[in-house]
Structures are given as structure tokens and as C-alpha cells.
Amino acid sequence: MFSDEMHCNYALAIWPVMAYGIRTWMPFGLGLFMGSFLAFLLYTSNDLEKELKVESVEDIQRFVNWEVRVQKTFPVGGVNSQNTQNKVVRSRFAATELGIRDRLILIVMAQSALSVALNASIGQHVPRMQIYADASRIDADMSVLTNLIPYRLNGLSGQRAHVHILNSIADQALQDNYDWFFFIPDTTYVNPFELLRLIKRLNWNRQTALGQADTDGNCILEAGILLSNTAFQALLQQRHLCQTIVAASDQQAFEMCIRHTTNLACQSKDQGQSHRWWRVEETGETGSAIHDHVHWLASSREFNNTLTVSPLLSEQDAFTLHEHFVNVEIGRITSEIKRTSQEIRVFEEELDGDRSWPIVWEYFTELDIFKNEPTQNSRPLTGNDALDIREVVEVARRKVEVDLEDGNVDISEVFNPNIMEFVQLRHGYRVFNAKRGMEYIVDLEYKWLRDEKREPLVKRLHVCRPIHFTELLHQVPYVKEDTDITIVIPIQTVEEAEAARALLIRHIRLCISSSSMIDSRQTRIVLAVRAISDVIMHQLTDELTHLKRKCKSWQTDIALLPLKPQSHAMIEAAALDEAIDHFGQQMIYVLLSPFADYQRELLDRVRINTIRHFQVFFPVPFAEFHPLIVNADRILNMAEKEQEKAGINNNTQMFFDLNNQEALEGRIRYLRDLIPPTMVAQRQLVVHKDRGFFDTNDFSVVSLYGTDYINARSKLAQKTDDGETTRLLDLSAIFLSQGDVHMLRSIEPSLRIRYHSRKCSPDLSPSDMARCQLSQKQSFGTKSQLAHVLFSDLRIIHNVPPSKIFQ
Fold this sequence. Notes:
This protein is of the alpha/beta class.
């Protein structure tokens, strides 16, 4: 009985365990069963036989003579240039490459919301302000700061706050972007105006630690620590030493860290400049806060010139101090303005004669304007300049006469049209200020009608035409720098053909000099010729074939397009018409003068500045002066120096009546026989004021998309068939007054135009004729060079040794 009862209890105990095992393995078994069942349904026995069938012995290839061949491809540019095929080569304008840095960064070690007040007051006066704070101390006010960088302290490892800050600065590479680094806690106010004046007078390129030293020679952080770039670089490189420093506080640890890593003793004076710190003693009494003492501290000159003030107990302290130092700075600037004005008045009284001419200002009268141009002294006051100055004079007159009527001036100068009358604009000056706009100084002269013996009344006014509205172009399309370029060179004379051959030779030199730089972008050079002999055509074909063979790394294609007899009379338009018909409208076309001399950077600039359906690019080229005149001026200077050394006085009579173009051309013919031909051979054209000038009247080079040219092509017929104009000087006229496509005009040093004889057609419009003739005159040389050639005795060139001539 007992055994049966025990057996029953044992069976009852085993049953839950078995039930649990069944529940565990049931999903696995059910899944296995379902998988087998589906496999049986999907695959029949015939299918399995086909899948598992072994190929016959005849179908198996023998592997006895197999050999594995690994073909290695070596890039042209070396082992590390395997991706250069896809790399776009372009000009780089990064500030780091140019070594450009900002002057100062202000680093605030924040512990409370006082950093918000410092950011609101000081932040707008320094180049950059960066705030570092422990993440556990950041409240709602601090969290909205855009220049706040939080960090987290690990209490177990005992890391200091300054270690996290230095690591963060190194991660952002801030040490490469600033000359000076100024550290303060958020309980210290720094006078931003005094700080900026201080760093302007110090040399950043030497190790400097400026501040207030304690008894151990460490800089006190509460007073502010100024580190030069070289000192801060040393601090970052040795910052690992700061992790083992044991100190009572984070501030004290940072002070010791600077001393140990830079090995610099703190100095309060350096290079004749002082670090001034004003510390308000805490008495614990009511009213001991800084904002309660500013009203009587303002009388202290030492306090007004201090660099830092501490400690700040509240945000009101920071704002009160900032308001005080702003007023001090305004007073200093006002005193400086008064002192400068007094110096100008004293200097003006010492000058003989009439008013002096301000530097860089343009002088004008009612009839003429004297611009800052090297080739022209004065110009008649016409066009937009005349409208501008007349409007300024009218505004100035109204201001003067209203002030006289209101009695805002001396009672003896009350304006009355019956006794006073405006006579003239005696003097006028103007200058463009990029920040303010156009500024004018006008002297208005009034005469007395009833008392003619009385001296005229002259009133000077300073007028400003401000920049009221500026617009950012947010809808500028995206520009890709991998666009193919087709360079179109129109040729219709023998001189242009010779110039084009020289251009192709220079292009080959560019390819050879940069053969290691592989460019996947295609550049096509097209010569569009008209009325050229077969001999010259054959020479151009040979040059193009040679260019294609030498410029494989540039992906250069070539083409020679003879223009049809019925093509447009304007060679530039006919060349573009023929090129676009051959190669399509979806690429950039550069209409290039055969006299051009360009660098590789021009093609990059073209790709960036030419935008489909939005912008065409007309670069301003550097035009070369007449080589004979440039070399003659140089040789004449050497000849005169040789005569001075020999003690020979040149008393040859000067012919000052040689003041026309015919006389200049006669002198040039004489120089052509006098100077060896090798002297005027084509040399490297350098951008220099004595070698040429940026011709703002030259629109011979243009880059555009074919579609934009086709859309504007209809205006070409309107311009030439209106009965008034039979020929255009260039294609710039067809893009004027267009709303959808605008013109970009900018100086381009990498585009140079070789000297050539410029011919102005009599069929040009008056405006085009004026531009053509002005470029023709300016291309001879500077005024000093022309005067030297015209009025000097050219025979003294024989006195210069040939060895010096060819230097």
C-alpha cells in the first residue's frame, strides 16, 4: 500500500516536467515537419535528379595546363594616384592653405548662468567667444547658447575640467585658426576694447603668457590669461602632463598646467604692454557688489583702462560694467575725433592756396571729373556721373538753404532769395565706401546780391548716398565643375592665324608642365577660320594634331571648322554658330581671342562662373602694352644711368610738339629699326603695371552655354539690322537688358591679351567706337613710358652695351 502510494506520487511529480519538455520541443518539431512536407510538394524526384546530376567525363575541362595570370595596371601618376582619374583638379582658396587666422578667441570656463550675461555683453565685440561648461551645471538659460560646448566629468577618474576643454579645442583644431587665446572664468568681466587694443600691439609669433602671477609664478585664471599661438600650441602638445596635477581646485590645476607645459613664467608686462586687473574686495556687507561701486570707480583713470574686473556676483554686475566701458570707449573715440579734426584744421591752415585734395577721393567740378586712373587726368562730366553729381548738389543746396531759413546757423547768414543767390559748385569730392555707400564732400558758393563787395558765402557739406538695400541671390543654380568646355578661336587674317599658332604652342606647354595631373574633363579646341589660304590651313592642322598628341592627359579634342560663305559677317558670331551646330547646345563654349594667353586656372573659373539659363561670364583680361615702347623705356632708363655714371649731360633739344598719334607711330617705326627683333619676341607675359593694364573695355572673351547663346541670337539680328548699326564690336550687346540671363564681369589675372594692332571699323556705333578707340590708345603704354619715348633722344640707346639690353 505504501509503495503504490509512493509510485503514484512520483508519477504525478514527473508529469509537469514532461509537459514542460513537450511544450519546449513542440515548435521545433512542428517546424521540421512543415519544412519536410513543403519540400516534398515543391520538388519531385525528377527535379532532384536533374539538380544532382553529375556531368559526364567528356564535359569536364582538364586543368593540367591551366595558368592563372594576374594583370596589374599601374597608374600614370604613381602608386598613390589610383583615384586621380575621377578627381577634379581645381583652384583652392582655403584659409588654412593661405595661413589666414583670426586675431582672437575668448574662452570662458563657465560654472553658472553668468556666462549668459557675458555672452550677451562681450560676445558681439570679439571675433569669437567659446563657452565650455560641465553638462551637469547647464540650466535652461545656458542651453540656448549657440557657442556653448558641454563636457562631462568622470568623478571616479578624477579628471579636471581643463583637460576636457583642451581636448575639445584640439579636436576642433582651434589652435590653427587664431593668433591669441584669452581664458577667463565666468566670474570675470573683460574689457573687449582694451583687449583688442592689447593684442594689436603684441607680437603673436613668440611664446607669451600674459596675466597676473601668484607667488609660484603661475598665471591667475581669475585675472584672465592671454596666450600667444605658439604658447598655446605648446600647451596642447604637452596637455597629457596636466592629468597628473594635484591641486585644490580646477582653476588652480589649470594655472599649474600652463606653467608645466609651456615652461613660461607669467608676466604682467610684455613688449611695452601691461595686463591690468581690478579686483573688488568682498567685504560681506550690503552694497559690496560691483554694480554698487561703478559710479565712483568711474572717476578712476586706472579703473577705466583696466583689462579685467572680478569677481562678478550677478548678471547685473556684468551688464553695469559693460555699459560703463562702452561709455568710456565712446568718450575715447569722441576725443580722438576731436583731436584728429583739430590736427586737420591746423594742417589746413598751414597749406598754401586753396583746399587740399583728399587721398583716394575723386575730384569734380560742374564740368569735369578727375578720376583715379593712371592713363587719364580728367574727363568731361557726362552720363551717369553728371546725373549723380547734379542730384547731390541739389540735395546739398536744399539742406543749406533750409538750415539758413530755420536759423540753424549764424544770424548773419540767414538765407533770403532776394539777397542771396547760388553761384556754383566750387569744389566736389566723392569716394565709394563699401560699408556706407557713396560719400561726397561739396563746397557750395553763394553770393550777396545787394552787397557785391562782400565776400561770397561758401558752405561745405558731407553728403552720403547709403546702401539702402542689399539682396542675397538664394536662387543661384548649382554649378558642377566637371563640365566639358569647347574653346572657339575665330581666325580671319594672317596676323590672327600666327597668333593662334602661338596660342596652341603655349597650350602644349601647359599640358607638358602639368602632365602628372590627369583631368577627366574634356577640353575641345576649335579653330573657326574664314578667308585663309590653304598653306595656313595646313599649318594650323599640323599644330592641332601635335597638340592632341601632347595633351592626352587633359582629354583634349581638336577641330578645324571652315566657316561658310553665307555665315554672319561678324566673325565671332559666325564661329559660335558653326561650333554649336557641330557639337550641340548642352556644353560651355569659350569664345577666345587668338591673341589670348591663358593659364589653367581660367578654365576652372569658367566652369564656376558660367551657369546655364542664369549667367554668362565676360572676364576682364590683362592687355599687354606695345613691346617696343616697354623695352624702349627700359633701355632709355639704362642709357640715362650710363650717362650719369660717365658724367655726360644730355642737353639734346626735346621736341615737345610731338603730341599726336602720327608722331608716336613714327617713333615706333624708328624703334623697330633701332631695337633688335629678339627684344620684342614673345616672352612670358607678367601681370605688372609697366607691362600692361586690365582693359575694362575689352569684351572679346566670353564663356556661355550654347542654349543661352541661341536664345540671345535673335537680338544680334536686331542690333545689326536696325539701320543705325551695321557692325558690333563684340557680343556683349546681345546680353544687355536681359531679365533671365545676366552678365558677370570680373578681373581675371589668368587671362592675358598679347599686344596686337587694334582696328576700329567705321561702321561701329558711337559707343562701340569710343570703347574701341580708348582701348587702342591705352594699349600703347603708360603715360610716363609714352612721354619717355616721345620726348627723349632715342639715339642714346646705342650707348647701352648689348649685354645689358638682353638682361
